[in-house]
Amino acid sequence: MTLRLNVFVCLIALLIQPNHGVARPHRPLLSVNEGGSDRPKYWILFKAKDQHGLPALSESAISRRQAQNLPLDDSDRPVSAAYLDQLQREGVLPLNKSRWLNAVSARLTAEQYAQVTNLPFVAGIQAIDPAIIITSIGGQDQPHGASPHMAPVMTQIQATDFAQAGLTGRFVNVGVIDAGFFGADSANALKHVFARAGVKRVRDYVNDKKTHGDLFHTLETMSDFHGTEVLAAIAGNDPVENTQYGLATDATFYLARSDQGNREYRGEEDNWVAAMEWMDSLGVRLINTSLGYAKGMSNPKENYEPSQMDGHTSLISRAAQIAADKKGILIIVSAGNEGDDRSWRIISTPADAQGVMAIGATNSRLWNRIGYSSIGPESLPYLKPNVSCFSLYGTSLSAPVITGFAACIMQANPRLTNKEVMAIIEKSSHLYPYGNNYVGYGVPQASRAIALLRNQPLPATARSVRASGKSFTLPVTSNESVVSVFHKKDATHILQQEAMKVNNGKLALRRSSGEKQTTVDLKKEVIEVIWE
């Protein structure tokens, strides 16, 4: 997947003030490979930990765990200092340390690889996939110079309902792990966040010599705009244009740059894991990441295969599952933009992990899958993506919208666990309970989420009917002249999606070969046709 720079230019033109308020880009800093080595990077996995090590957590993080009845365990202890000393004596310089995976990342020569493999405390060595990609672009027909269409998604998810309830993400800590945040502190849509010191901590895992200000004022590649776009989609609000871009306008933010954007494919999953653990140590409960792994290894023999998007093959998914199960973190991930890539099509990792919330993208009118949005593998025993919403420019801009949605829920009831918040978002979605592997449970609706938070009954918007034969005429009540229909081989897996005309209050359904169920999406109602 190629990153289109014109996407960044047209989006940031809307976000950043022209001619003032933005520092001139500094000379690009030294890249990782310029100052280091082009040796392959690996995870070195350890067998055990020092049982006397203290948990590497802040008081707020420990309090959060206690509030969620999540016990501290071995994964909260740091990696063994004795192991690190031994590696350094072997001439190995650890790059990142992961207490969750009990591992460190390092660049190794072939000789070092052999030496480290034979160390008695080393459980194994695993190559780090350099295939991290930014999932921010749309289909091939994207017009040059187009403007971001965030207003339609705010209407789609019923943003005004949250606003009327006073839900703006206040008191909620949100982590954003991305490729860069250039110009964020000068963007019109984010001025309100920085004016109230809403960004508390920043960290650059690509270049640790960068200061707080460098992250916002130093442009190394055009990908450094990407995190700014994502942050605006979570919390953006431009009073000059009277436009709301995101829901969590009063949230508090922790930002991490984990990805260097000067190549299409990158092997920096260790930075991502380190950023996750840093945010966990600070007590962050909600994290957005619009990065994902698919294919593109420098050595084609090491590429991920679609069959490996199973939730546990990649270490990045294993780390995400640890965060969900043991740390109480809600991770919201873009599903990926490989839906039009016939050699791949499915979601990337870590969106494949069961515990994360993977977000797809819909069209603005029909609310069915937009072409580029990745689909869920049929081999998974759980539904992916989880939900979807409109984004013209990729799932990188649909995931932060749902992150803002989650922040509003967490403000309303801070005692909810990550899994309870995920369940509310899914149950609030317009297709629930008839989800599919194209758009998940559909588009979350703020009015339904508020009703669930208040323990109020939801309106009866879902029903099923039975049909037989090759065709069926379904009476429908809808103001839409064209509606979305999902033809399915079973309860969740799509054969094809179709836009169908409503004629005189009826839909003429024709059963496809192998079709067992059909979902008729009327937006305000969903009808499941079960073929006999």
Walkthrough of the structure:
Belongs to the peptidase S8 family. Residues 172-442 form the Peptidase S8/S53 domain. The active site is at residues 178, 226, 396. By secondary structure, the chain is α/β, with parallel strands linked by helices. It folds into three domains: 5-24 and 131-136 and 150-453, 3-Layer(aba) Sandwich (Rossmann fold), CATH 3.40.50; 38-127, Alpha-Beta Plaits (2-Layer Sandwich), CATH 3.30.70; 462-531, Sandwich (Immunoglobulin-like), CATH 2.60.40. It is built from 15 helices and 22 strands. The chain has helices at 5-15, 32-35, 59-67, 81-89, 110-117, 150-156, 159-164, 191-195, 212-217, 226-235, 269-281, 315-326, 399-412, 418-427, 446-453; strands at residues 41-46, 96-98, 103-107, 122-127, 132-134, 173-178, 199-204, 237-238, 243-244, 252-257, 286-289, 291-293, 330-334, 357-362, 387-390, 462-467, 471-475, 482-488, 494-501, 506-510, 517-521, 526-531. A seven-stranded parallel sheet has the order 7-10-6-11-13-14-15, with helices on both faces. It has a five-stranded mixed sheet with strand order 16-22-21-18-19, with no helix packed on it. Helix 10 (226-235) runs parallel beside helix 13 (399-412) and helix 11 runs parallel beside helix 12 (315-326).
What CATH architecture of the largest domain would you give?
Answer: 3-Layer(aba) Sandwich
Total beta-strand segments:
22
- Structural class, by secondary structure, is alpha/beta
How much beta, percentage-wise? 15-25%
Total of DSSP H or I helical runs spanning 4+ residues = 15
Instruction: Tell me, briefly, the overall form.
Output: globular
Low-confidence stretches: 1-36, 136-150
Any idea of the CATH class of the largest domain? Alpha Beta
| Number of domains as seen in the coordinates | 3
CATH superfamily of the largest domain: Peptidase S8/S53 domain
* Radius of gyration, taken over Cα atoms and rounded to an integer in Å: 23 Å
Whole-number mean pLDDT: 86
Main sheet strand line-up: 7-10-6-11-13-14-15
Cα distance, first to last residue?
42 Å
Helix content bin: 10-25%
CATH topology of the largest domain, what is it called? Rossmann fold
Largest sheet, described in full? 7 strands, parallel
